Request: fold
Amino acid sequence: MDFRLYFRSRQGELVHLLKQIVALESPTDDKKAVDACVSFTVKELKKVGCKVTTYPQKDTGDLVVAEFAPGHVKEADDEILVLTHLDTVWPVGKIAKMPFYVQGNRLYGPGVLDMKAGLIMLLASLRALDGLNVKPQKKITVFVNSAEETGSAASTDLIRKLARRASLVLCLEPALPGGALKLERKGRLVVRMDVHGRSAHGGTPEKGVSAVEELVAQIARFRRLRTGETTVNVGLMGGGEKANVVAESAWAVLDIRFWKAADRDRVLKILRESAPALRGARIRITVESTTPPMEKTKASGKVFAQAQEIAAGMGLTLKAGKTGGGSDASIAAGMGIPTLDGLGPDGDGLHAENEHLLVPSLIERTALLTELLKTL
Reply:
């Protein structure tokens, strides 16, 4: 079966389905909107013969696990886990100013690349396997995350649980510009620093200890955390109550990115051992969230070589690259599971108003995904 020709003949169907799901705007922090998109996705998964389990969430969109029905796979204990997400960074109403449309070979719209196209690819691939009665070598489990952009403890725990059963993880995040897969990703650490001082009248500041001044001193020290390609961004900060009062408290939130788990440990050690610059000030460090780096491994390299060979047989070229952004794939890869990330389409404008994908890439990547699910 030439899946490239198969999906090329069904390009209109893919684009129409993608238009439907993009129209269901789903910003991570809007549970009602996300759950509407979840409901649509569940119906589509059931249409292709999946057994679907929904995990209700209180504050974020519900999580979904879909299993390709046993009758559609060969007898096997092995399992492939496919990671997708349907939440986006765009607020409800954004589509009015950033509409879904096709111009030449480019397809625009909020969330179209990151990563509703990946979800459409998965639905189209399963529909093809089902309709053509193709039996994959391994069981296929799909995880649909509703809080990937912000991360959540519930989704992380579920990914880890599912990954333990799998011998391979495929993540449908968009490809790197140019089409390369992502075999390395930076890890992410979000840290909050709370500083406590002692309030006093602004006219006699020597009687107090300024938490704001202490925070500024600590921020200046953050430069020592930046070694190699480890980055530190002070994204949020605040403190004090009035201009004529010595600030009793202040805070900052840091976004730290790193290639190796050892770099994360080094940064945390330095932060936790930070001594106050001002006598009488106190510092508290809290880790708000952490995503492990996707480090290059022999296991992932081996499965990438297999994917390259399969792609070559389809007339496609696969390359590997790395990115500073994080994804759910890093969670699975951090457990030592062979992982391929960036299997989604080529495009550009992630989290930007020119977000778009290349339609030929959408067809090619859907064909490749189908072949990988069938063969690996």
